[in-house]
Amino acid sequence: MDKELRDLTRAEEQIMQVLWDLKEAFVKEIIAQLPEPKPAYNTVSTIVRILETKGFIGHTAFGKSHQYHPAISKEEYKNFAADKLLNGYFENSVESMFSFFVKKEKLDITEADEIIKLIEKMKNK
């Protein structure tokens, strides 16, 4: 991607989550997937146009209507958001971030076991 990724607002991220799930959608289809209370059509349409300007989505024209699709994968944005979190709040230390989640009890024993397995895999490479 030639555009630099930028933060998404909560509303933009919510619409991107819908588009990542649906792969492509018209504004009415996006609205149908959003929780109650449903935002107005014009509101969603405006956010979609902003996302397109930011380079996050593209569209295919069908006469006067447009079907939108993600131009950025969920994985690309996940990498951007994780890097921002790691660099911005944990001084680029995975250990510091991991320790934070352990202290906040955001990690259960099953997840910890999976992480240990991943670490063991890394050691054996």
TrEMBL record:
Entries under SUPFAM superfamilies matching the protein: Winged helix' DNA-binding domain (SSF46785)
Source organism per UniProt: Pedobacter alpinus
Pfam families associated with the record: Penicillinase_R
Family to which the UniProt record says this protein belongs: Belongs to the BlaI transcriptional regulatory family.
Protein name according to UniProt: BlaI/MecI/CopY family transcriptional regulator
Residue ranges the record marks as coiled coil: none
InterPro entries in alphabetical order: BlaI_family, WH-like_DNA-bd_sf, WH_DNA-bd_sf
Keywords: DNA-binding, Transcription, Transcription regulation
